[in-house]
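Review form for a predicted model. The reviewer records the input and the model, then writes brief findings.
Reviewer: anonymous (R2)
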Amino acid sequence: MKDMNIIDDVAANGGLSFGELPFNDVDSLVFAQLAYFPFETILENGGEKLMGDVDTQSVQVPKRGKERYKNHVILFKSAAASKRYGGFIMSDFVNDLDDTVEKQFCAVCFRNDEFIYVSFRGTDATVAGWKEDVNLSFMDEIPAQKHAVEYLKHIAAKFPKHKIITGGHSKGGNLAIYSAAMAPQEVRRRVAAIFAHDSPGFRKEFFLTKGYLKIENKIRKTVPHSSIIGMMLENPTPFSVVDSKSVSIFQHNPYKWIVRNHSFVPKPYLHPGWYYFDSSLNKWIESISDEERKRFFDLIFLFLRTAGITDFRSRINNLSTLVKNLRGVYALYKELDDETKVFFKKTVRLFIDIMSEERRQNKNKTS
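Model under review:
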């Protein structure tokens, strides 16, 4: 059987109904990725439209961010033309960006006679997007999480008789879990399943909340073999590991996840090297205060901006860009006050020490 991705799977199985081929993680990832499509081009003023009625020939890849949206547009066109997804009504598209509070919230609903899939858009491969994921480590509630709760309450009230499924990729999966956990009890009961695709965890206090304990058995989490974002912060929720055609940090791209027979190809465990990294990162995060986390990550992203690195799509391009701007990065470091330099060096050293200890402990366990 040929290895496919979700776009190939839609083409191969789009003629089958959910009665013929039951809804699963692959379908969830399709809806999760559709949230990245620029729905403002086809849904006007919060309106709704049958996916199959969209004139897909008129749907073009936006000039800005052409490569970023290419797969999203291809996926949408394929889904709209299929029997499996074309019968869903798209509605309640919201896209709320506010740089002043570092908020990026986007969601859309897909509705048929059986259920509603509430799809939360996550972060993409941009540095700015990843900054919001990092904010989860030192904020009790990021603005997007608060908006997600209100959005889910709104959808539940608007469609009171529908079963609800929530999901998303990256930060979108985090929002799916958070919104269901923090929603009123009558809304939470209607949520049948929650899908989190390589989504970051939460601060450990969250997992002791009544809301999370009520929904934990409804969560289905999938992470790639070399997961970084999906293993950030505390992650007691069980997860499945899936194979990817990509490597290292680039496995966060779900279009690279391998699908066979309408199922993700499983891997028995996380990549050991990245597991040590994730474990060390999380221990380091726990070892410093919220204020120190914010200060450190603000510095890291300042260095990335100075280096001219705007996304994580190409290792070669990023290395070339860094080399070109190395003088500027060094100049920025020299301009830091002595206290900040000491803090930065101390924090990096602490992380290196924790990572070294993790490796030593693992060696002792396996020897």
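Findings: The mean pLDDT is 84.
Further findings: Strands lie at 49-50, 89-98, 103-111, 115-120, 163-169, 191-197, 219-224, 239-242, 259-260, 263-264.
Recommendation: see findings above.
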